[in-house]
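Look over what follows to help learners.
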Amino acid sequence: MAKGAGTTLAIAIVGTIIGCIIGFIVGLIQTIPVNQNDSVGKKVLLKIVNIILKIYVEVFRGTPMMVQAMFLYYGAMILFNINMGMWTAAFFIVSINTGAYMAETVRGGIFSVPLSQTEGAKAIGMTHFQTMVNVILPQALRNIMPQIGNNLIINIKDTCVLSCIGCVELFFTSKSVAGTYYTYFETFTITMAMYLIMTLFFSWLLRVVEKKMDGPAEYDLATTDTLAFTSGTLTSPVKEHVDDRGLSD
């Protein structure tokens, strides 16, 4: 069962990481602006790509992971004669499922950043890609960190559905142990405790990461740069003005 728990963690963590990468790519493509001055080819290409990505997101968000696992695993075998191994199938299914959810999360995180940030970046000559990488995504990442953590917790629990394609993770191992020793209640009590320990640990770990990203609650402005000073360090002498009547301002 401990080995099965290790398999569960490996699939969940790797699948979440790859899914986040897929989600970021899809989210970035979906937020590419289309201007009136763009060529017709660019507009048509972006339209087609966005339609395909929209279908991908809606299909994988609107169907259960177990059904997706059965469809992809056996479909690849029947239609394309591709016999995916346990690890390949598990990573692929969890990754594309997570990517569909993360795509909408990333898109929402990008739109949560004030438009003035984008306008300011473009005002200094940044391209759309430079604006996203250097200005928008660092801010959006903090906003979507809780959802990334939620996806990891969900994947730890939902990997149990991969037992339908023979993936030897914690749930599959627990069924084997319970069936061998006829100790269903005892076995699944231990299994439930193991899932709970894993999810609680990663929930705590992600809260620590979020706190680190927030930075200290109290801070002072950096004044190590000789060209940047806080208010009040420089004074501007004012020359006294005396008018014709001998009165000063």
